[in-house]
Amino acid sequence: MKKLIVVYIFLLGLFALYLFYYKSTSLNETALEKAQEGIRGNMNEKYVMVTFQAGHDYWKRALKGFEDAAGALNVSIEYRGAAQYDVHEQITVLEQVIAKKPDGIAISAIDPDKLTTTINKAIDAGIPVVLFDSGAPSSKAQTFIGTDNYNAGVMGAQEMASLLDNKGQVGIVTLPNQLNHQERVKGFLETMEKDYPGIKVVEVKDGKGSEPISRMAAKELLSKYPHLNGIFATEAIGGIGVGSAVSAVKGKNKVKIVSFDTDKPTLDLIKDGTISATLAQGTWKMGYWSMQFLFHLNHKLTADSKLGNISAPPLPPNVDTGVSVITKKNVGDFYGQ
Amino acid sequence: MKKLIVVYIFLLGLFALYLFYYKSTSLNETALEKAQEGIRGNMNEKYVMVTFQAGHDYWKRALKGFEDAAGALNVSIEYRGAAQYDVHEQITVLEQVIAKKPDGIAISAIDPDKLTTTINKAIDAGIPVVLFDSGAPSSKAQTFIGTDNYNAGVMGAQEMASLLDNKGQVGIVTLPNQLNHQERVKGFLETMEKDYPGIKVVEVKDGKGSEPISRMAAKELLSKYPHLNGIFATEAIGGIGVGSAVSAVKGKNKVKIVSFDTDKPTLDLIKDGTISATLAQGTWKMGYWSMQFLFHLNHKLTADSKLGNISAPPLPPNVDTGVSVITKKNVGDFYGQ
Questions:
Q1: Are residues A159 and A274 in the same domain?
Q2: What SUPFAM superfamilies would the database entry show (chains A, B) (predicted)?
Q3: Which domain holds residue B129?
Q4: Which of A167, B32, B67, B120 has the CB geometry, 3.0–4.6 Å to A198, for a possible disulfide?
């Protein structure tokens, strides 16, 4: 009888062990199988974002996107940048970053031509590189992630047309010598001409990226064209100058202003009605997809590696991160971004 | 004595159970911790790719990219398509797909206007949608992933200029009524005008996407312009027609042909030297990033969810997947893709 109990307990123990073993094995296998799947790196991987004017608010959302992607992918990041608007300083910073052999570098190039040699040095050293916000088309870097400025100009024209009920006179205050601003103006002008025959663009003026000069330019437009209905400013500082000219010379809400970017003074002028709309760039998206693309290059997750020795660029060469229109209605969403 | 053995076995069993329990718990915790990191879904998620002319080779690489991304992300996919080049059939297929409430749909739209209502129906039902290869700009879908045809024309011009040592006469055979082909021609013409003053584009002809008509168009170019040095064909069937005209009327290697896409007959003509270069579209990238973007929409991994109620498009609105140049040197990479 007691022997039977011993055997019974022994068999029961074996069965329990078997159950636990079975359960733990199958659970572990599933869990490990899962852990091996998915797209993830490890915390020893380091990706670096390099900008210029590193303290500027503009980069905050780009860095947030970079961080968010790194968090999702389980990798580490570092932010480096020239403190000033100085190409030599950015070259020095980039040289220092290259020396540390990170797993990828996302760069916004202050000067595409002068940075090309250093960018190519990174690529020749086998470090994945993407350009964001401000590209370097003649470098060996194959991907640019940023605003398509022509499309941004198209959006600006559509917003202006909607503010003016598709009729009236419009002026532009811009930086005529800078490529991104030329493209914004081109998109604006071609859209007005093609889609809004009731709107006439009367003059394009140089605001030199300066608040007082842009204010003066706007004043001249307002006195030269007494029936002026709107002004498009292709950058934020100019938009603030235009805003102060319009507020001073005429009553608010008469001349509609469409501006660019989302610094605090611009948002304040949206809130008080001086500026009717501003175009926000997709800076979070620039940072997020820069990180994703660098990860894909570093882990060889692209067509290159999937399809053998194929002579195709591994990533999309151009990603337009778009602009969104900010007005009084949604300006609250953009404070503190 | 026997009692002692019973107690002994019982205690031994408890200890073994404890060990196994401990091991399985700690392993599972680590594994689950890992499984929570990284970017991954689960196999119950289903994403659908919808095309037209579903059996066509052209979609194979796009589907491979879609599959590769789904594999990396641990989710399921399905491929559906209209068998014919028929907008009503594609609408029916899309309706059937919507009824199954998948986690995302990537569509190449045979006819942007006629499909817009059905695409919007999917979005209104809360299903993430991206357009690839052929977009639907007036629909509510916010992202298009495909070839920037203007840039493709620029690449075609650069390749032609390099083949002709920057001088000579060039003709074009195209589909003048289709937007994507208009853009290819525009990019080609503007690049020649701006960057290659030694090259003159003598005439643009309609090949109607037909091999015999394109052959006839090329014959006319060859007889009208006896000093013709090159022909740019903006689509593959036309390129084959142009190839046969050039082979028949003149000796090979005299008139250089730059064509489009990578179907087998085109690759064969590259191999035998009739066509000097063809432009391969980034179809793998279209499929891969369509899947990634749908996953990001479905899992709310975009700025929208990371930054509160922000009034910005969640994904980049335009992704240019680029083209790569195929010549005799690298044509081997593209067979069997």
A1: yes
A2: Periplasmic binding protein-like I (SSF53822)
A3: 46-147+283-321
A4: A167
